[in-house]
Amino acid sequence: MRKPIILKLALTGLVACGLVGADQVKPAASTQTTQFISTLSTPVKTVANQYKLYPSVMMAQAALESGWGTSQLSTSANNYFGVKGSYNGQSVTMSTAEYDANGQLYYTNAAFKKYPSVQESMVDNAQLLRNGTAWDSSYYSGTWRENAATYQDAANALTGKYATAPTYGTSLINLIQTYGLSTLDSGGSVASESSTADSSSANSNSATTTPTTPTTGATTTTSTTKSKKITYTTGENGQSVVLGSRFRNYAIYNHVKGSAYKTTKYSWYTIGGWTNRPVWLDGRAYKSATKTNWYRIRFSKQTTAKKYWVYKKALTFPKTTYSKLETSATIGSTSETVYNHVYNSAYLAKKLTTTDALKNQKVTVNEKATHVQNGITTTWYRFSAGDVTGWAKASAFSKVG
């Protein structure tokens, strides 16, 4: 890993979604899925049918976004889709812990919609899909039953629109097929056998949220020695990787092991870890004494989800290959984001600015990166223009070389 550059810039944006992967190891069974489906079946069928949507897709989305109803937003605000803002003037403020460059904890708040009931949450989601966005009322028209011949078509229509993860639709389809949710589309109820499939197995394909308080399998230890030096950096919240094949060889904590904070060690069995389970990253810690990197992860794209720290080797990062390139380039006419590192790389990228003020200008390029994730290859260039030095995707340039 090259020497990281720590920039004193405020985090300017949140990216909603990251990688969604398929599970390979399924934990033991749980009644969480059965209870969740039983509670939501009536409101989901009522609302989805009213708005001519697929109940199976709505149920799968609710399960995916709320971690089968374990997210803090769903339990305290009936908010099953992580929607920010207020609903009829009602909202709930969620506090999330952050670290500054010196490793000091601080908290920031965000308002999320608070619904009076489960049904209102479903209605709000249905209205979004039916009414679209401010700039395109038919933005989600691919999910409408008159346009989607099957629930698979409706689920795939959400990919790249509701969520940017390239396998988002596949994740929903896996949930529907695993738990027999397609019976909801014909007015039936989901068979009780769905309880034999664990909630965590479905979450391997979803943006899950773990409970906010540890249960069995958690042990607390207090660090007796303060680490000589731990440098913390933050990145965009939407960056995502997966748990590696050897993740169980490394523990999971609430703080970096060896830091000055009281450290709690959790059991992977309790957390629900398995190979290729997607995790979202928003922080990196470099321990100078051991020359090792740690990452702050969460099991949901929702920024209010509980956060943990793991050693780098517990994770599998997309492959990013760097090469020197001394040339000139011209910024294109479209608006692209400029980051301090390649997005979703092991360095963790933070947004610096956009190319808006640089459109059609010539810049100097000094490095190239090839990034491969989910079978998709993207090319990035590191460029300089005045006071701006950062990375942008090849699509940001109209000409290179």
UniProtKB/TrEMBL annotation:
InterPro entries with a match to the protein in the record: Glycosyl_Hydrolase_73, MGlyc_endo_b_GlcNAc-like_dom
Keyword terms of this UniProt record: Hydrolase, Signal
GO molecular function, one term: amidase activity
Keyword Ribonucleoprotein belongs to the record: no
Keyword Signal attributed: yes
Domain Mannosyl-glycoprotein endo-beta-N-acetylglucosamidase-like: 24-185
A Pfam family per the record: Glucosaminidase
Signal peptide per UniProt: 1-22
Region called Disordered, residue ranges: 190-226
PANTHER family for the chain: PEPTIDOGLYCAN HYDROLASE FLGJ
The family this protein is said to belong to: Belongs to the glycosyl hydrolase 73 family.
Protein's UniProt name: Muramidase (Flagellum-specific)
Originating organism: Secundilactobacillus similis DSM 23365 = JCM 2765
